[in-house]
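Quick start: what a row looks like.
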Amino acid sequence: MITRLEEPFRSRWAGQDPFAAAEALQGEILRALEGRRTLRFEVDGHGYYAKIHRGIGWGEILKNLLSGRLPVLGAGNEWRALERLTAAGVDTMHAVAFGECGDNPARRHSFIITEELAPTVSLEDFCRDWPQHPPAPTLKHALIRRVGEMARRMHGSGVNHRDFYICHFLLHLPVDATAPRLSLIDLHRAQVRASTPRRWRDKDLAALYFSALEIGLTRRDRLRFLKAYFARPLRDILHDESALLGHLESESVRLMARYRRKYAPGAGQ
């Protein structure tokens, strides 16, 4: 069993079973899936998010593996990813409580509680009307550079996100147009290794590229991102990473086609 508690939970849960205390939390239920519950709650006027995992069972684990997906077995993924990103200088959530118990991966009980990041807006929402109302170039370029730098630090630290979309970047308010602050969230599917395999790096970058397709970025904007991500001269990047650039184009087409099939009017009826 592993538990890590910071204030206010160290004091509030003193003498209690932290797993029972986490299960007893009450608040706004944001997601309730088999084996996982996510809720927002407040303590002394401060907002927190809790993710509580109760195991998904061997059947769900096997179904994920047979579908080529890596199952999420508990809160440990997110805890380890947050520690690694923080050490690498990537702004992200701050975990104030974590617990994990059970050797059986199909029935492992775990939880993680993070401080609410507020006031913020998702980068997806912030950029949504850019095609109709372009932002000031200074702000747009600063955001592109910041996302590129965060992605570089994340992959350089051995973390790949697996849900690396612009909706998972939170922009802190009020916005500093020259040095905007972003925090990376939703790391429950993240993988943590000594180094990030190129395959998983490329999957993250393709997801990010796809999620930014419709916010009005130009070719120069994409080159700005590449320069920030690789931190090398642009000429070298275009020569050395030509395979990646081709992959991003083809994968974004595939992802967009899948997205439109899934969310087109009448899909799933």
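That is the whole record. Residues 131 and 216 are 5 Å apart (CA to CA). DSSP finds ten helices and eleven strands in the chain.
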